[in-house]
Structure formats: structure tokens, C-alpha cells
């Protein structure tokens, strides 16, 4: 009888380890796919003083990103393919944006989306905008109150060029790596920006099924923002401390949330 009990306990332990291992592999796979896509987009980002860049802390003459509490948003031009209009005249540049959809009731609610809007050559179309040069901007600014592509800078507006790229990604936060090696929540001059440091929180599908959309939104809201003076890795530590302190939600679900951080280095600006 004792041998049977010991064997049962060993089998249960093995099943638990296998389940946890599968959860981590699911989260790792999701994070790797997203972060690899972001690496391609950022590596080919158009860094010029005469084109716009919408992000946290951006200000005139660029789109006014301002302070972003909770999930961050970012939009920029990149020399990658996108979803092109049916004009047949495709430029090599797309408008790329990343966000966590915050429109309650939407299919993509609490999921990470990527916008890949392929742009046409200048003068090809009277309805499809090409790359616009300052003072025209991607999003709202003093010179362009509505912006050229309002959906690219919104967490709720719809656009057919958006697609879900991280269905298990529930939190997105970033800061800037400056050329002097420091980290900042303000981008400063584009020539002084060496890279972007992105942090994401990913929950595996089985753990996500244990939570409601409202509970997931509450968890994401509790994961703090970058603040000035943070040391490398400090945000992830703060996030993990917060998750460890949650006692009013199923622990198996909370233990299924994984945290990731990656540096994306940018090419020198074309002045």
C-alpha cells in the first residue's frame, strides 16, 4: 500500500512538473515570436529628423505622445513590407505600430496588436497617404491636430492593417537607451537615441482561461510603469514582486505569467 501511495505521489509530481514546463514553453514561444518581429521592425526604423516618430514622451514637432500610464503605444516608419492598398504602387516603407488593445468587447481586447500599413509612393493616390514629412505627423500634434493616421496612435481605434501578434501578451512597457548608455523615459533628440528597451508580460493559454478579461486588465494595471532613474532589470523585479503579492486570484493562473525584457538597438539617424 505504501509503495502504491509513493508511486501515485511521484506520478502527480511528474504531471505537475510537465504542466509547468509546457506553460513556460508556451509563454517563451509567444514572447520569442513577438520580440523577434519587433527586432526586425526596429532595426529598419526610419530615423530622420524630417519624419515623425510617435512614442512615449515625444513632443512637438513630432506627434505628442506624452505620458503613457499603463500599456505603452508606439508608431514609426520602417522599411518592411505591410498591408498595401490596391493601387499596385508599393513603396518600401510601412507604418508600423504596437499596442495592447484596450477596447472592451473587441476580439483583440487585452491582446497585443501590430499595425503594418504598407505605404504608396508619393503622388500615386489621392486617398492613400504616403510617408508624410514634418510638420505633418502620424498622430496628433500642434501642427496636425488629428494626425495622418489616428488609429496608429490609439489603443481602441480600428484599422484593417492591425493584426493580433501576441494573443497572450497582457502588458507592454518600454524606455529608451540613450547614446551615453543611460536609460530614459524621454526620447530626447532622435540622434541621441541608441535603442529601445521593451518589457512584456505573457500569460500562457491554460492560465489565461482561469481569469476573466476584467481580472487580466486589473493584473496588467498593477504592473508599474518605467520611471526616471530605474536601473537595468528593476522594472521586471517590480513586476515579479507585484505578481508574488497577489492573493485574491488563482495562484496557478498568476504563476503562468512570465516576464521578458529585450534591448533593440537602432541604426544611426539619417540626417
Widest sheet: strand ordering: 1-2-3-4
Let me know the average pLDDT.
90
Q: How many helices in DSSP terms?
A: 5
Rg is 21 Å
What percent of the residues sit in helical stretches (DSSP H or I)?
25-40%
Structural class given helices, strands, pairing?
A: alpha+beta
Protein model, in words:
The chain is an alpha+beta fold and 271 residues long. It is 26% helix and 23% strand. It has a four-stranded antiparallel β-sheet. A four-stranded antiparallel β-sheet has the order 6-5-7-8, with helices on both faces. A hairpin with a 4-residue loop joins β5 and β6. It is globular. The termini are far apart. About 2% of the residues have low confidence.
Give the secondary structure arrangement, pairings included.
Blueprint lengths: L1 H42 L30 E5 L11 E11 L11 E9 L41 E5 L2 E10 L4 E2 L8 E11 L1 H4 L4 H10 L11 H11 L6 H4 L2 E9 L6
Antiparallel strand pairs: 1-2, 2-3, 3-4, 5-6, 5-7, 7-8
Key descriptive features of the protein:
alpha+beta, 23% strand, 5 helices, 271 residues, four-stranded antiparallel beta sheet, 8 strands
Please sum up the structure shown:
This protein has 271 residues and is of the alpha+beta class.
Amino acid at each position: 500500500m505504501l509503495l502504491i501511495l509513493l508511486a501515485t505521489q511521484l506520478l502527480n509530481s511528474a504531471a505537475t512538473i510537465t504542466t509547468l514546463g509546457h506553460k513556460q514553453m508556451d509563454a517563451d514561444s509567444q514572447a520569442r515570436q513577438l520580440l523577434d518581429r519587433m527586432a526586425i521592425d526596429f532595426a529598419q526604423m526610419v530615423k530622420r529628423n524630417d519624419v515623425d516618430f510617435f512614442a512615449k514622451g515625444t513632443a512637438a514637432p513630432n506627434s505628442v505622445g506624452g505620458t503613457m500610464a499603463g500599456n505603452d503605444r508606439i508608431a514609426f516608419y520602417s522599411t518592411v513590407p505591410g498591408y498595401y492598398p490596391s493601387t499596385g504602387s508599393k513603396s518600401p516603407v510601412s507604418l508600423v505600430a504596437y499596442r495592447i488593445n484596450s477596447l472592451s468587447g473587441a476580439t483583440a481586447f487585452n491582446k497585443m496588436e501590430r499595425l503594418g500599413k504598407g505605404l504608396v509612393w508619393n503622388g500615386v493616390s489621392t486617398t492613400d497617404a504616403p510617408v508624410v514629412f514634418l510638420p505633418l505627423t502620424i498622430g496628433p500634434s500642434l501642427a496636425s491636430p488629428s494626425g495622418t493616421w489616428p488609429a496608429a496612435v490609439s489603443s481602441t481605434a480600428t484599422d484593417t492593417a492591425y493584426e493580433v501578434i501576441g494573443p497572450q501578451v497582457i502588458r507592454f512597457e518600454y524606455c529608451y537607451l540613450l547614446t551615453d548608455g543611460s536609460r530614459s523615459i524621454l526620447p530626447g533628440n532622435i540622434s541621441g537615441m541608441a535603442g529601445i528597451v521593451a518589457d512584456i508580460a505573457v500569460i500562457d493559454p491554460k492560465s489565461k482561461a482561469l481569469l476573466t478579461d476584467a481580472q487580466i486588465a486589473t493584473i496588467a494595471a498593477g504592473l508599474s510603469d518605467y520611471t526616471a532613474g530605474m536601473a537595468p532589470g528593476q522594472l521586471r523585479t517590480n513586476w515579479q514582486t507585484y505578481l508574488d503579492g497577489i492573493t485574491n486570484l488563482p495562484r496557478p493562473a498568476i504563476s503562468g505569467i512570465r516576464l521578458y525584457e529585450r534591448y533593440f538597438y537602432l541604426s544611426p539617424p539619417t540626417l
